[in-house]
Design brief:
Layout (H helix, E strand, L loop, with lengths): L3 E5 L4 E6 L11 H16 L5 E6 L10 H18 L1 H12 L1 H10 L5 E5 L3 E2 H9 L2 E5 L6 E2 L13 H8 L2 H10 L2 E2 L1 H6 L5 E3 L4 H10 L23 H4 L2 H12 L4 H13 L4 H16 L2 H18 L15 E5 L3 H12 L3 E5 L3 H20 L5 H9 L1 E4 L10 E4 L5 H12 L7 E4 L6 H5 L8 E6 L8 E6 L5 H13 L3 E6 L6 H17 L4 H11 L5 H8 L1 H15 L6 H13 L12 E2 L7 E2 L13 H5 L3 H21 L6 H12 L8 H8 L1 H15 L7 H9 L3 H4 L9
Parallel strand pairs: 2-3, 3-4, 4-6, 5-7, 6-9, 10-11, 10-13, 11-12, 13-14, 14-15, 16-17
Antiparallel strand pairs: 1-2, 7-8, 15-16, 18-19
Length: 737
């Protein structure tokens, strides 16, 4: 066998060691399923084998399924629909997708005890394998995580996970675990009875074998007569306190945008009312249905396949050797600079944190110390880890400390003069090899690079706020940026565990252009008289994580006004809606409402209490709607306006070659500003609807609300030819090497 090694000891216990060649982590592929099937048959049929232990030779047990396998199944399904019809194609998906579930059930009912010896992280189908075993023992490791995260890519556990979890845990806890896709530490997993024992790493296999020798039972509780569900029957007082509220919570959190989440509720509810084999069949039917959904296809593509490609360096220049970044300079010890210093030090690199003087630099590090100490107090971080991280950061006001840095990232105020002054000071002390990066969010990189003597070494690295939590980084190429700078930036972003997208220079780059379109749409709705609460709720119903007014508060209402004025100064008065500008001027200059930063924006932020929409907002609306007019507002149209405004802007950036890779456009839109994840991203949203339908909708909105919805030339061309973004611009395989 290529992926497993089988050894049977003198006691008749089989040790199955999982070790996929050429991979850093075991994953479930068709080859793995076939070999594991043969091993289950061997253990079951060989009288000399008394039981089996399955473990891994790698640092982790299993990372889950190879989702490219499921993506290929989707392509085969589409072909079969055309050649054999929808019913035959659906039958194919059902039979193929349940193979793993049937295999695990055969293992579970083999009559021989199986133990999973978990020697590291176990996710998805790998953890479902562990759940099918009769006993689970894990080696002590604080980094081990166990979970079923399929919901995060538009799926749900389809190899028995929903049914076994719901028979081990209380149903409310099981639903929460499945719907959130949580990754549990060993302590939490043991407390939840998802594993049976935790032992020192050196004793792992011995402990597993000892359980079998001691007469370990080869029958699961749910296969024994008289088994009672942990939470009692579905139709009981306890059951009625679980499922109706769970349905309400699901609606509140997802607005029914995620078919997989709905399916989890359905399969747990139905599965707990029948025997295990029937329950697994129910699960498989729903899994096959969800696997065929456009939401699952889009999310698997963007949030797994494309994201994996980008994280592995799909856009890295192949000609450039790997960099060895050891020391990074960060200019600016404010909120952004301190955040960049934090993630850099967390990656094990030394950081020189510079500000205008020693006192200001020290304040930046002190603020970081306080933020990390808060995590320690909440049990989210060990004090030793905090101290180790902070020890790597050296605050100073002396630019000479940058001499030996491999990369310098400036994160000072968004002002050309301030940045030019920083660039001059840096150039005076660094050598001719260090790469210089600007963390600008709006200023064009090409113009900033004119201040730098060696422009091929100048690049943009745009982090999003808050740096420690946001997963995306935009790498911006100026007209003269060289491959060495790009390779270094990509290696650095990868080292700090962020996902990079590479964009070409432009006002607002990619993410901010689309974000501003979203926030602007919220402002314009507000000026039309739409109640602020309806604006915020409609945006969330459309799939956005926060409403546009809330997002504006987070980014800064005052910053929004500065961006509008800068845009107007550069592009002319027609580039900015005058009524939007007046709204922000009223908010900032008359009301002194800057956003969350001063506790006053579109929302009020009372100390120690949840934020609330500012009651004075209605006074700023030039148009007042009657109760009847408010009731007549088309909420579906509001939702469409939010998504189409952003997607149309994303299409413009693609036509203008600001973003040149469909993967980056989609991954960037989800990770960067939370574009409705169930769509797979801004361009995927257009493809999912179909370019013809999208163009028709955009033109309808344009006629009613203005030119900002007008489809660009590329969209019109794709619609006329019946093409899609992924159809015409599918990335070449070699790029994802």
């Amino acid at each position: 066998m290529a992926n497993f090694k089988l050894d049977v000891d003198a006691d008749g216990i089989a040790l199955i060691t999982w070790d996929m060649p050429g991979k850093s982590m075991n994953v479930i592929s068709m080859d793995v399923i076939e070999e594991l099937d043969a091993l289950v048959e061997k253990v079951t049929s060989d009288a000399a084998i008394k039981g089996a232990v399955i473990t891994s030779a790698k640092d982790a047990f299993c990372g889950g399924a190879d989702l490219t396998m499921l993506e290929r199944m989707g392509a085969i399904y589409a072909d079969k629909v055309k050649s054999e019809g929808a019913e035959a194609a659906a039958g194919f998906v059902f039979e193929e997708s349940r193979k793993l579930s049937l295999l695990y059930r055969r293992l579970e009912k083999s009559g021989k005890p199986w133990v999973c010896a978990i020697n590291g992280t176990a996710m998805g189908g790998g953890f479902e394998l562990a759940l099918a075993c009769h006993y689970r023992v894990a080696s002590e490791n604080p980094k081990t995580r166990l979970g079923l995260p399929e919901i995060k890519i538009g799926l749900f556990p389809g190899a028995g996970g929903t049914q076994r979890i719901a028979r081990i845990m209380q149903p409310a806890d099981a639903l929460q675990f499945l719907l959130k896709g949580d990754q549990l530490s060993l302590d939490r997993a043991k407390n939840s009875k998802l594993i049976d024992a935790v032992v020192p790493a050196g004793d792992l296999v011995k402990a597993a074998k000892d359980w079998i020798k001691a007469g370990g039972k080869a029958v699961k509780p749910w296969d024994e007569k008289g088994f009672k569900l942990p939470g009692g029957p579905v139709y009981s007082k306890a059951g009625m306190m679980t499922f109706p509220p769970a349905n309400a919570i699901y609606r509140r959190e997802t607005y029914d945008n995620y078919p997989a989440a709905r399916a989890i509720l359905q399969v747990v509810y139905e599965g707990l009312q029948v025997d295990m084999d029937t329950a697994l069949r129910i699960e498989s039917r729903w899994f096959a249905k969800i696997l065929r959904s456009p939401e699952a296809a889009a999310m698997i593509r963007s949030l797994f396949v494309s994201m994996q490609d980008l994280n592995k360096g799909a856009r890295r220049p192949a000609s450039e050797p790997a960099t060895n970044l050891k020391k990074i300079g960060v200019i600016g010890a404010g909120f952004m600079g301190a955040g960049i210093a934090q993630v850099t030090a967390a990656a094990g690199m030394q950081v020189v944190l510079i500000d205008r003087d020693q006192e200001t630099a020290d304040k930046g590090k002190a603020a970081l110390h306080k933020a990390l100490s808060d995590r320690v107090m909440k049990g989210r971080m060990k004090s030793a880890a905090r101290d180790e991280l902070l020890a790597l950061i050296t605050p100073t006001g002396d630019y000479n400390a940058l001499k030996n840095c491999d990369l310098i990232v400036e994160a000072v105020f968004e002002d050309r003069k301030v940045k030019a002054d920083v660039i001059a000071k840096v150039q005076a002390v660094i050598g001719d090899k260090a790469i210089f990066a600007s963390n600008t969010s709006t200023l064009p990189i090409t113009s900033l690079a004119t201040e730098f003597k060696d422009q091929p070494r100048f690049i943009g690295i745009h982090f999003f706020s808050p740096v420690d939590r946001m997963l995306l980084v935009e790498i911006i190429l100026g007209k003269n940026t060289g491959d060495k700078a790009l390779a270094t930036a990509l290696d650095y972003v990868r080292a700090v565990k962020k996902t990079p997208i590479v964009v070409n220079d432009s006002r607002g780059f990619y993410a901010n252009r689309c974000v501003l379109a979203y926030i602007q749409e919220g402002h314009l709705m507000f000026l039309e008289g739409v109640p602020a609460a309806l604006i915020e709720n409609a945006a969330r119903m459309a799939g956005m994580p926060v409403g546009p007014l809330s997002l504006n508060d987070e980014t800064g209402v005052d910053l929004g006004l500065k961006i509008l004025r800068a845009t107007e100064a550069d592009l002319g008065a027609g580039a900015v809606p005058p009524e939007q500008k007046k709204l922000l001027e009223d908010m900032v200059e008359k009301q002194q409402r800057f956003g969350r930063k001063n506790g006053k924006g579109f929302y009020d932020y009372p100390q120690g209490a949840p934020k609330k929409l500012w009651p004075g907002l209605a006074d700023l609306q030039p148009k007042k709607l009657s109760r009847e007019e408010v009731d007549a507002i088309d909420v579906e149209e509001l939702k469409q306006r939010f998504l189409v405004a952003q997607a149309a802007e994303a299409a413009r950036t693609f036509e203008e070659k600001v973003v040149t890779d469909v993967r980056e456009a989609d991954v960037g839109s989800i990770l960067g500003w939370g574009f409705a994840p169930f769509t797979g991203g801004a361009l995927s949203y257009i493809d999912m609807m179909g370019t013809k339908k999208f163009v028709a909708l955009a033109q309808k909105l344009e006629a009613k609300f203005g030119k900002r919805f007008a489809p660009n030339k590329l969209l019109l061309e794709l619609a006329a030819k019946g093409e899609s973004f992924y159809g015409r611009f599918a990335p070449k395989k070699k790029e994802a090497a």
